[in-house]
């Protein structure tokens, strides 16, 4: 069951939604506020980059 009171970013409509909206599989969140939900794709890119860097460091790929 998803949180129906938070802010979400809808991937289908590329828009911020609050509460019930599109189906859960099409949304990112919940986020604490509208501004953070609007940055959902940017936040996801930042987290992916950080995880990729952590993986490289763990494997030793970051050494020259």
Which radius of gyration do the C-alpha atoms yield? 15 Å
Structural class, please? alpha+beta
Summed up, the helix count is 2
So what's the overall shape?
A: elongated
Q: Return the average pLDDT rounded to an integer.
A: 90
Brief overview, please?
With 64 residues, the chain is of the alpha+beta class. It is built from two helices and three strands, in the order βββαα. It is elongated and about 45 Å long.
Question: Your description of this structure?
Answer:
This protein is an alpha+beta fold. It has helices at about 35-40, 40-60, and strands spanning about 5-10, 15-20, 25-30. It has a three-stranded antiparallel beta sheet with strand order 2-1-3. A hairpin with a 4-residue loop joins β1 (about 5-10) and β2. The termini are far apart.
Features:
64 residues, alpha+beta, 3-stranded antiparallel β-sheet, 2 helices, 3 strands
Topology:
Elements: E1 7-10, E2 15-18, E3 27-31, H1 34-38, H2 40-59
Antiparallel strand pairs: 1-2, 1-3
């Amino acid at each position: 069951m998803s949180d129906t009171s938070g802010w979400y970013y809808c991937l289908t409509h590329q828009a911020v939604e609050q509460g019930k909206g599109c189906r859960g599989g099409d949304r990112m969140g919940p986020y604490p506020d509208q501004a953070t939900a609007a940055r959902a794709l940017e936040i996801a890119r930042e987290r992916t980059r950080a995880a990729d860097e952590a993986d490289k460091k763990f494997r030793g790929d970051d050494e020259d």
